[in-house]
Structure formats: C-alpha cells, structure tokens
Amino acid sequence: MRTETKETLKTITTATITMQLLKRGVKNTYMRGVRALNPMQVGERMVGVAYTVRFIPMREDLFDLALLGSPENLARRAIEECPAGGVMVIDARGAADCGTYGDILATRLKIRGVEGVVTDGGVRDAVEIGVIGLPSFAAGPAAPASPTEHVPVGLNEPVACGGVAIYPGDIIVGDSDGVVVIPPALADEVARDGAEQDGIENFIQKLVASGRPVIGTYPPDDGIRKEYADWVAAGKPDL
Fold first, then answer.
1. Has domain 31-182 been given CATH number 3.50.30.40?
2. Which of the chain's ends, N or C, has fewer CB atoms near its CB within 10 Å?
C-alpha cells in the first residue's frame, strides 16, 4: 500500500469505503459482530495491511498448556512476526466468550509498530488495552484464556473474520462504525473517490444543518456538485 493511499484512507469513514466498494460490485466487506473494544475519537482510524491468525476448536488430547510459552505456539509467533504497519486479523470462529489476546501481547504489538488487532472473538484485559492505546476491534471483552475454546493452527493464510474473507495483504480499515476490508488492487481508487465522497457529504451536512431540505440536496445532483466545487474554490467559507 502506498503511503499516500494509507494517509488518505485515514481520513475516510468505513461507511464511505463500503459504499465505494459496493459501487465496484464488492459487497461482503464489513465484519459483522466486530466493534471497537474501547471508544474512538472522531476522525480516529486504524489502517494497515492484514496479517492473519487462524484458530480452530480445541482438541484437549492434542494440546498441552506447556505450549503456551513455547516458540511452537503460533499465537505467540504471530506477535513477533506481524510486521510494523500491519493489522493482525484473528479468525476466532466468532467465539465471543473466550479471549484471543490480552494486555501483555497488546503491549508488545504496540511497541513493534503494529497498527492494531481485529478478532471476531473476545479479548482479555479490555480496559488495560485501552490504556495501552493499541486500536483493537473484537466481539467484546472476555476473561477466559484461549485454550478454553480453541488453538492456533495457521499464520498468514486466508481466514474468515466476522463473516468476511480476509487474505494476507488485504487493506484493513477500522473506526467507530467497525471494520472493513479493501482488496489491495482497489485501494488507490477507493481512497481517491472516497475522499471526494466524504468531502461533498461534509458539505451537504453543513447545508442541511443550515436549513436546506434533504430532498434535492442528498444524494447530490449536478447542481449540488457545482455548489460544492464553487465552495471549495472559495476556500470553504462558513455556511
């Protein structure tokens, strides 16, 4: 992902991104049941390249708790292998009553420059992770450790998260509305056209707030688009 594209995506809402993808025939991009673990500020956004972790249901006869601290534990390896600028996406099978990571692992990811974590499972130490400041999206907080439900079996391979197919290298964007995935080949044009969409919608929001009716204003026709262009050319004065 180009730096310019990443910086532009940081200014675009996930709502706008889903619309831009819909216009291109890509519909299943919004992760269901996945929300910001801690409140996000207006305009705050997580953007990065997907690095994936896949869990399957636990088989007690094939798992030893001693593996938790072993270099063979894929969940621990992922913490060291997820690249700076990446977003760790965890396929936890939607098991919301079980944690997939906690504050110590979140601290390490933050220090290593990882942009954030997305899981369709639960997360331990939710309040503490908010203090750490690593953007985290999950089904919600959950106290039990991961071995109570599942075991990691794959790194950086196609997974499902929140009902969406995620491939390594996909672009992940998260904000207060949730998380969306962008196919890499579409990232540049989605960023370009999304910025234009957000710009004109912010202008329309100002018009409506000043008393303009929605009908004839939104969605914008050629007249509104000309008003917007004139407003931008004039330096975006107060309306």
1. yes
2. C
